[in-house]
Write a structure and sequence with these properties.
Number of strands: 0
Shape: elongated
Strand content: under 5%
Oligomer: single chain
Order of helices and strands: HHHHH
Structural class: mainly alpha
Largest sheet: none
Distance between the termini: 32 Å
Length: 113
């Protein structure tokens, strides 16, 4: 995926402050349609990028929604997310112990462990 494409997808589709999954789906479909319209022999990577995005659409959107729903509670009371807060949140999430897990060895351990 090109740097520009990654930036567009990450900022426009997977941004944490997205209002809803419906809006995220519309943006994702818009990006795929734009790539389709720009397919030509001069830019063969556009076609392969579009196919990857189309084939993985549900997985990409599910990942974004999963992250959004997990982090939403941490951002509700904050008007602005600065680096200091995000670093503190990252530290907290890396050291918070799992209460349950599908893998029994992870119960009682943090992601860091």
């Amino acid at each position: 995926m090109s740097k520009l494409s990654c930036r567009v997808v990450s900022h426009d589709v997977f941004e944490l402050a997205m209002p809803s999954l419906v809006v995220r789906e519309e943006l994702f479909d818009f990006i795929v349609a734009a790539l389709r319209s720009r397919e030509c022999k001069a830019y063969p990577k556009n076609r392969s990028l579009r196919k990857v995005l189309e084939n993985q659409r549900n997985q990409f959107l599910a990942l974004a929604e999963n992250c959004n729903s997990r982090l939403r509670n941490h951002f509700v009371l904050r008007r602005r997310l600065d680096d200091a807060y995000l670093n503190l949140l990252q530290f907290f999430l890396n050291h918070c112990r799992f209460l349950r897990s599908q893998i029994p060895e992870r119960v009682g351990k943090s992601p860091r462990e």
